[in-house]
Amino acid sequence: MPRAVRFDEYGDVDVLRVVEVPRPVPGPGQVLVEVKAAGINPGEAGIRKGLLDAMWPASFPSGQGSDLAGVVTGAGADVTAFAPGDEVFGFTDDRASQAEFVAVDARNFTPRPTGVSWEVAGGLPVVGTTAWACVRAVGVTTGDTVVVSGAAGGVGTVASQLARNAGATVLGLAGPAHHDWLAEHGIVPVAHGAGVADRLRAVAGRAPDAFIDTHGDGYVQLAVELGVRPERINTVIDFDAAERHGAKTDGNAAGANADVLAALAAQLHSGELELPIARAYPLDEVRDAYRDLEGGHTLGKIVLVP
Q1: Is 277 left (phi over 0), alpha (psi -120 to 50) or beta?
Q2: Nearest Cα to 87, choosing from 26, 34, 23, 27?
Q3: What pTM was computed for the model?
Q4: Percentage helix, strand, coil, to 5, in the chain?
Q5: What distance lies between CA 94 and its chain's CA centroid?
Q6: Looking at residue 254, what is its pLDDT?
Q7: pLDDT tens-place string over residues 70-117
Q8: CA-CA distances (angstroms) from residue 221 to 144, 226, 288?
């Protein structure tokens, strides 16, 4: 029997376990995928801890995970876009990707780009579509100066590159350990922490045009203080501040579709976009993977490899 990540109650990483489950059967419009890589995301940790119960309650036993890349092994009725043997990547809305096999709506997939690793393809969907939505929300255009907080994280690395590709000068807030990676990818690194407002003013020379917040912790307020107009501020985490200041909160839900994935895949294939993989863990080490994620300070994505 195939294996999958499950948890039976809210709690720390110790509630996670890998168990045998019945092999999924694809329904109409679905494909069955043998998972080669599945991303992990901070929101999943929040759901597992019960911190997001009001918005996204869990039904126990609960699966986990949205991102995945793998090989189609079967298809339900009405599926014409994919056939067994096709290599795909995309997402599930059923908290089920951290598993060896998963049945997913075919409309949530696009072909894996040639030359793109399983780990990158499996780690991209959530952060990629979220980053795409962030860049669109603040209307990045050629000549803009855009600040990205958490620029070395999963969403931040992709959003910074997408804004750069749109012709903006991107100031990436990150710890010094990740400044070289940002600079090598055409992003101006700026250290976070005390004095960040002065550093941003000194580098930008004027008020930034837009601000993408992937970290929270006061960055929406900072953007306002720097003179960024609220309609050009987008946060994926600090919703209270966004409501106070009239900022935007576009995230994964605003970009999660196969057309966006295909556009991101084209940039991966051309080399215009890169997703750094901090580490790949075997499925059995899911607890260690989430400890790593929740410790912060990783560059890019952490993935599971069933």
Answers
A1: beta
A2: 34
A3: 0.95
A4: 35, 25, 40
A5: 16
A6: 87
A7: 999 999 999 999 999 999 999 999 999 999 999 999 999 999 998 999
A8: 20, 9, 34
